Amino acid sequence: FGFDLNHFHSLPLYDAVEYLINTFELHLRANAYLQFFLDEVFEFTLKKEANLSAFLSFWEKQGNTKSIISSGNDGAVQIMTVHKSKGLQFPVVIYPYANEQIDYTQRSHLWVNLPENFKLPVALTTHPSKDIEHPNYVDIYEDLLQNLEMESVNILYVALTRASEELFILSEDKRSQKSPVAKLNTISGLLMSYAEKSLKGSIDVDIDYSWGELTPPKPKSVQDQTLETKELVFHSPSPKLNLSLVTTAGKLWSQELEEALEEGNLMHSFLSRIKDKNDIEASLSWHIENGLLEEEQKSFYEKQLKSITTHNQLVEFYSGTDEVLNEQDIYFENQILRPDRVNLRGREAVIIDYKTGLASEQHQQQLETYSQALTTLKYNVKKRLLVYIRESIDVKIV
Fold first, then answer.
1. C-beta of residue 113 within 8 angstroms of C-beta of residue 188
2. Which of 89, 248, 265, 367 is most buried, most CB within 10 Å of its CB?
């Protein structure tokens, strides 16, 4: 192949990888994985110490965690947690292992106030259970149970509402011949109880049982999947390197796109690229080009974004006169904070945070923490705004 080791070591890291690909003719079998690897090398050279030994150490530790996320338009199966599926929708969803105990406390812990005759003011209780009868403990334990039950019900709601056409729930009958009654503190017990009430009868123990009707899939028209290819431009001169970059939306995903998809909130992703009202078109186009948005959805989101940037309580902050920091990290009291938007006018600051759910007191507390962090940085916080994005835009001054 004519590989020159001395020449390889004389090149910068990214150029050396290009030289390696070219020399061993890996470009003849170039695919998404090779392109992804090149992207990882390039990103490493921007953020880390750009030498070969540092990259090899990095890749040895994190290489197995890297993956290419492909579009779901090609019959792909996506595996994710219930939390990550929030805000997303799929034609078919399979929810396996639906057996969890909704008030399971063994992964929790409690801090309990102790009487004055103890040397310590509080005690840590791991693996809490109902066996302790101390009055200081009982109330806290009951609160824990209620919170766990509420969290489990919320997660169950998300899992059961992700499917637009078909939902398959795989559960296990935890009953026995000695105890044939379903336990209502488990998801399997709740499902069993619901099935029995719907059928107006009992279901025998220790049998395989299925309930519901399977609807045949609707035929879909075959779309043209022709890929548009463009010549890949390298940073170093490699005239013989014949790689193509796939640019059809949704075929390849960078790490940045993967994070946007996992976030499950397109509006936040749109707004993170908007500093003033003139950026709306560019933000939407970027998401379309990179497979995060369908062309036919553009007008809907464009209308929503314009309703934000032209809102009478917000319009001055999208006029382009302020310095704008979108989703910038702030280190404050041993934690990383990331306000959605901060407008700066000299040493004066306005904090804007976007929400898509119901109003919560926690949202106000979050803005208060952001405000404290900016005050510590010697900024005078003039306004704190919560922007609730629903069918209409609701702005709340905190």
1. no
2. 367
d(C-alpha 79, C-alpha 62), whole Å: 20
Radius of gyration of the chain (CA): 27
Q: At what angle do helices 280-289 and 298-309 cross, to 10 degrees?
A: 150
Distance CA 12, CA 50 (A): 8
| Residues 222, 217: Cα–Cα separation, whole Å | 14
Q: Which amino acid is at 92?
A: V
The average pLDDT across 319-333 equals 89
User: What is the separation of C-alpha 308 from the centre of its chain, rounded to a whole number of angstroms?
Assistant: 23
Q: What would the two tokens of residue 233 be?
A: 């431009």
The pTM of this model reads 0.40
Whole-number Cα distances in Å, 273 to 190, 191, 277: 44, 43, 11
Structure tokens at 155: 């997660």
Q: Which helix (H) or strand (E) holds 56?
A: helix 52-62
**Distances from the Cα of 171 to the Cα of 58, 97, 180, 189, 328, angstroms:** 41, 6, 16, 9, 43
Q: Which helix (H) or strand (E) holds 300?
A: helix 298-309
Distance CA 215, CA 217 (A): 6
Structure tokens that stand for 66 in this block:
């890297």
Alpha-carbon distance of 70 to 79, in angstroms, equals 12
Query: What pLDDT, in 10s, does the model give residues 201-240?
Result: 787 887 777 777 777 766 665 555 444 444 344 444 444 4
Q: What span, in angstroms and rounded, lies between the C-alpha atoms of 2 and 10?
A: 16
Q: How far apart are CA 274 and CA 276, in angstroms?
A: 6
Residue 166 dihedral angles phi and psi, to the nearest 5°: -135, 140
Closest CA to 135 of 120, 149, 115: 115
Which residues have a Cβ under 8 Å from the Cβ of 333 and sit 6 or more positions away? 373
**Tens digit of pLDDT for each residue in 10-67?**
888 888 888 888 888 877 765 677 878 888 888 887 765 667 888 888 898 888 888 7
Distance of alpha carbon 52 from alpha carbon 272, whole angstroms: 34
Q: Is 341 helix (H, G, I), strand (E, B) or coil?
A: strand
Measured CA to CA, the distance from residue 75 to residue 201 in angstroms comes to 39
CA proximity to 291, closest of 234, 247, 325, 334: 247
